[in-house]
Each structure stands twice: as C-alpha cells, then as structure tokens.
Amino acid sequence: MSNVERDRASAGTLEIAVFHGGHAWCAEVQDDAGTRRVTLAGSRGIVGTSKTADVPVVDATVSGKHLALAVERDGVVLSDLGSKNGTFVGGARVKEAKATAGTTIVIGRSTVTLRAMERDASSDDDAEPLAGVAGGSIVMRRIAACVRRVAAHGVPVLVTGETGTGKELVARAVHTEGARARGPFVALNVASLPRDLVESELFGHERGAFTGAVSRRAGAFSEADGGTLFLDEIGDLPLDAQPKLLRALDGYDVRRVGATGKGRAPDVRIVAATNRALVDRVSDQLFRADLFHRLSVFTISLPPLRQRRGDIGPIARAILVAAPNGLGRRELTPRALARLVAHDWPGNVRELRSVLYRASDHARTSGIIDLEHVEEAVHVANVPPANEIGRRQAQALLDEHRGNITAAARAAGVPRSTFRKRLHS
Fold it and tell me: Please, what is the angle between helix 334-342 and helix 348-362, to 10°?
C-alpha cells in the first residue's frame, strides 16, 4: 500500500505517513536542535540542512542536500549526494547502502536512525525525554513515559539492565517525577557493602552493638525518610539480610542493630536496580521469591547502548561538556562519531565515558577528537582474557566502574582478591 493513511501531530509538526508493506518509515533525527522524528511522506526523500529537505537537519557540518532516502518494501536505500563530510553506516563511509529498521546513519555531528512505524504505534513514542538523561530515541521516550506513570504510584520499582546503562539516572527520575521529589534521594550500592555490615548500613546501629560500632548510626532507611532509597545491585543482597528488607517493605517496624524496644515503620519508597537476572537467582535459591515479587511491582528494563545507537551522539556530547576541566574543550569529527556509533559498548555509557576521556587526552594538541584518537582509546578498553589482565587493564576497569572493585572484578571474570593483586602487579 502506498496511499496516505494517517495524519499525526508530533513535536509541533503535521506528519503524513505513507505505508509501505504494512508500516510507515520514519527518521529519528538527533542533531544540534535536539531530537525529533520525521515521517517519510513519500517513497523518496532528501536529508540535509536545506529548507526544502524532506528530513531537515540542524548541523553546520551537514550539507544542504546530504543524502537521499528511497523507500522500498524491504528497507530503505540511502545514497550520498556528494556531501562534504560524508555519510557513514556501521563506521564505514558509503556512497550507497541498503538500510533496514534500526539502522543508524551518521552525518556530520548528527545521527539519523531509520524506524519502521507500526500501525499501532504508542503515544509513548512522543513522550518528552527525561531531564538529565541524554538521548531522545523512541525506546528512551517510551521509558520516559513509563517512569512518569510509575512515579505517581509510590510503590517499589525494579530497574534492570546491563552495567553502565544508566539505572541510577532512571531511579533519580522516578524520585523527581513522584510525590517525594522534595524528600531525600539516598543511593546505596549493595554489592560494595561488607557482608557483616549490610544490616547496619540499611537500618543503622546503636553504639556498642558490635565491635567497631563506636557511635550511633542512622542507616540508609532513616536517611531516606520521606524520600527514596535506591538500592543498586540488589541481586547481591545476602540471603540472611533479605527477610529484614522484606519486613521493611511490608511496612512493619524496624529497629537499629542493637536497639531494644519498639521500632519504627519506615516512610521510604524503594527503587532497586540489578544487572543480574533475578528470576534465575530465585531459581538458584540465592534470592527470595517473596522479596523479588515485592520489589518488582513495576519493572523498567533499560536497553544496552548498542540497541539505541542514535543516542550515542547526544550522550557523547553531554559527557564531553561535563568532562573534568583538565581535559579541555573537545569536539568529535564525523569519522570519530561514526566509529563510536559502530562500537558495541559492552560496558555501555561507563565504557563510552572512559573511551572519550582517553580520546580527549590523545587529542590534547588540536582539541578535535578524530578517528585515530577513538581507535586508540577503544583499543585500551578491549579487555583481554582474565588470566592476561595486567595492572593497566585492571585500573581501566576500575575507572569504568567508578572505583567499585566488586563490579570491576565481576567484569574481568576474576575473584576480588585476584583483581586486587592485578591492580598492584
């Protein structure tokens, strides 16, 4: 079918969708003006900065008529129109290529991701992106809409996703979008807690409750009173501490370690996060089923960076803007951005940040991050087999995991004790 079937308002513009093979094609543009979707209203369209372009791009490094898109039943053929800075797909500069749904094209400082719009497209696709979360891809807009819905309920939320996908950012968004926004947001990484101090860190302790308890401690639940407690890496919570967390979630009184008398029911919303498959942990009897069900009233699953490549450009620019002053101001060339978009990012945004910091150092003379700077920085990020990890690779992993030795050791596939030795080898 190729006749006009739907008018749709999006981002203040009228979209006229032309369906081919049961769906319409749209271009998800992320450029200097932000993020938006432009529906391809015919079988052919021009992408560029020209006022007559069918897919307009706001980017001084993009040509007026940069490339052409030709819609076919099984995909979209893209053709570079002699652009100055080129058209890149999969990290390679192309003159012509066949693209399918999800293909991300790099032009200048911008990305264009092709999407096949289904007839039953959700209104969540047009949701405003979350504040403080870079990238406006459709999948992140859907997550933004989900965050705003669950934030209003006040019940526990479980955020899942690979390490480095931004689970804490989403947890903060749940907090700020909800009724507890004026209360405290307290983050606690469960994996980094010494096993014998988990209960004390959660609920506090009285002076003298155990060896080393030289003063009274409030605990994370008390610190988050009236607000939100974010429990990161919840899958690593020891089994013996899980019943007490469940009791607190169920609204029962809890007491500090070593306290006597009546306790107090916590007034805290819990947002937990994990990069583990908690269902498998339950099956392996490493995580209580009742606690899992209590934590996962709502679940928000974050996609890895490789599944939202169009967001890499905005995220990279945000990282460079927020980089330490010592790195100086840096800009990415189209070739460098294309290489970043083509990488699979097993460490997700944390790995991207580390690569950009290293690339910034390599580009310290010119201030322009080019392809060779990214290549050199990515090469350092490639983790060798566990038995070959040396001090340099171990330190790079530790930096990517923000000093969390447990998480870095897990990524390296070695015990904590072994990882510590490699740091000082």
Answer: 150
Smallest Cα–Cα separation from 110: which of 169, 68, 61, 69?
A: 61
* Longest CA span, the chain: 79
Q: What is the pTM of this model?
A: 0.78
Q: How far is CA 416 from the centre of its chain?
A: 26
pLDDT at position 6 is: 33
| pLDDT-flagged residues of the chain (< 70) | 1-23, 118-122, 205-216, 252-265, 380-389, 411, 413-414, 425
DSSP β-ladder status, 331-332 and 368-369:
parallel
CB 230 within 8 A of CB 276: no
Calpha distance 208→190 (Å, rounded): 24
Q: Is the dihedral of CA 198, 202, 207, 212 positive or negative?
A: positive
pLDDT digits (tens, 9 = 90+) for 343-354: 999 899 999 999
CA dihedral defined by 202, 191, 301, 36, rounded to 10 degrees?
Answer: 100
- The encoded tokens of residue 373 equal 């700077």
Q: Which residues make Cβ contacts (< 8 Å) with residue 294, sequence separation at least 6? A: 156, 246, 249, 250
Do the Cβ atoms of 138 and 115 come closer than 8 Å? Answer: yes
Distances (CA, A) of 94 to 44, 90, 265, 334: 18, 10, 62, 13
Identify the bridge partners of residue 159 per DSSP, sorted by sequence position: 273, 300
Burial 182-215 (b: 16+ CB within 10 A, else e): ebebbbbbbbebeeeebbbbbbbbbeebeeebee
> Which segments of 249-296 are extended strands (E)?
269-274
Distance CA(107)–CA(179), nearest Å, equals 42
88: CB partners within 8 A, 6+ apart:
94, 105, 106, 107, 334, 335, 337, 338, 341
The set of residues, in sequence order, having a beta carbon less than 8 Å from that of 330 and lying 6+ positions away, is 320, 323, 356, 359, 360, 363, 367, 368, 369
